Structure of RAS p21 protein activator 2:
Amino acid sequence: MFQIRDLPIGQYLLPLFCLIYKTNTQCTCQLRLACVFVGKVAIRKEDLYKYCGKENWFQLQPVDPHSEVQGKVHLEMKLNELITENGSICQQLVVQIIACQGLPLISGQNCDPYATVTLVGPARSDQKKTKVKKKTSDPQFDETFHFEVQYLLQPKGNGTKSKPDDLGSLRLKVTYTEDNVLPSPCYMALRNLMLKSPDVKPISASAAHVLGDICRESVGYDALLPVVRLLLHHNRLLPFLTSVAALELENTQEANTIFRGNSLATRCIDDMMKIVGKSYLTVTLKPVLNEIFESNKTCEIDPVKLKEGDNVEVNKENLQGYVHKVFTSITQSSSSCPPLMCDVFRSLRQLASKRFPADPHVQYSAVSSFIFLRFFAVAVLSPHTFQLRTHHPDPEISRTLTLISKTIQSLGSWGSLSKNKLVRQLLVRRFRCVHVIFNREVHKRAQGRKRLGKKNFKKRWLRVTNQELSYHKQKGKEALCIIPVKNILGVEKLEESAFNRKNMFQVIHSEKPLYVQAGNCVETNSWIEVLSQVSRCNPGRLSTFHPSAYVGGSWLCCTETNESTPGCKPCTATLLANIQLDIDCDRETERIFSFFSSSRSRLQKMEDACAGMSVYLGQQEECSAFTIQDPKETFRTIKELGEVLDDLQAHHDSKGALTDEPGTM
């Protein structure tokens, strides 16, 4: 995002795109107005760190307009004089967007282009947008826009002419990161110390918690992101999040303020949702957001911000329609929620109920404070940040998204819901309603629930909903057996040799496995996919299974005689659920080291505070800046950290940490 100021008179803002690229020596941002480059900002690589995380005004420098041409725009502009009803003369700028040619391809394919025309003035700005043209790099627009410019176009510098070489300024926020990663063995000690964090009692004495504590004043909780990524890669994130959430709840006095602040626990859970929930957001929100962007209905309901000709009642209906679609997409998305998020939310519900047993609603507000307020509402507000849209929305759509996001936050707050009986009833019904997901005629093997019954195959109607799996003698008949979805521990294929039948699968649950033969291989895969999806967040999911049956006193697959012997093959669903993200553990550990190194003085103060508490047996004034529950255990962790950090710094010194390699942005 950028801002522009002091552009020469006669230039009208017609942004096509802003090109940012990297070189080994500098980062260059070029600003293009109409089909002419106005200027560029160039920052030397060695100076990037000076501007990291800050917004600065940079003077625009001249640029060769032929060096980075990416297409052409055909437009016509003219300034007319109109006589108003009261006899005064008003100027009107007419801009006709005729066509574009040779627009850049996105991932080798044509994009869906549109043009925005923005007239910027000292008092106010006005923006208009063309219709979207589908799948083309040479769009024909032929659209005309009119702007009243009596108060918009003003001479620069109180009427004085601008200098020919004065191109104005560009406001940028630069983020620069340079990592000097050592060989993997160098990070083993620090990595192991961080991975041990979830097991440390109390959790505040762990290396991960200490890092968040000492970096809180300097970089907030940004230092926790590499910790979250490292723990996630090694399947250690869930116990850590559970522990830090429990610690925060210990210090929460009222149920209505649960997880509302910016804390170590909330930041870690936020980072986790952003990492593992990307595809979840795409499936849930992208279709409805695309509809909002393309239809672009006005939703302004603030009387102060209404434009001439707007109908507040129509706008209100538009907003209600959008909110209904977004909220429906969210409340019907439970089957797409990533397993880790389900596990974390389950832990939060249990912790909240234990902390406030007299409040029946707290288990819901504990989850809604994250899933609605910190996840979906944020994604709706800034879809481009979550890769749900490729560009920042224009002002009108941005305002619409703001109104939808605020409404979603309100609806997602259990405190607000408890005051609105109708909405609460709708929510409860929506979450409790039964959805039939899949049903087919199958052949089912008798489970042997009757001691003298024959274990043969019979035709049955198999039906799965979001709550239960059941089989019936015929479609529409009463269920002969019901297996709650929450009791399913695994769904896997069964070897053909088990019963000399093809297209077999098994449903492993709390009782004997259910063996089913589908009509064909496609239906077999569909059953496994559907049942695995609805049960993937169940506690106690199996990690191994037997691919064959227990017949004649032994498992046919591994010949084990004990029927309760754990499976001999990894579960397919577990393998898929545990596929790790592309995380470079050495780089994440190096970032953790960098945060520790930049806060060594704070680490020393925390060590001194622990020593003081141990000697004086009480909370001292200098200890209030840190979370120290067990001074001796925390002191032990800090001493171990100091040794590990010193050793890693020695490796950097011996290898020559500073290199001439370009950094990353």
The longest strand covers residues 89-101. The chain has 18 helices and 22 strands. Residues 631-655 form the longest helix (25 residues). The radius of gyration is 31 Å.
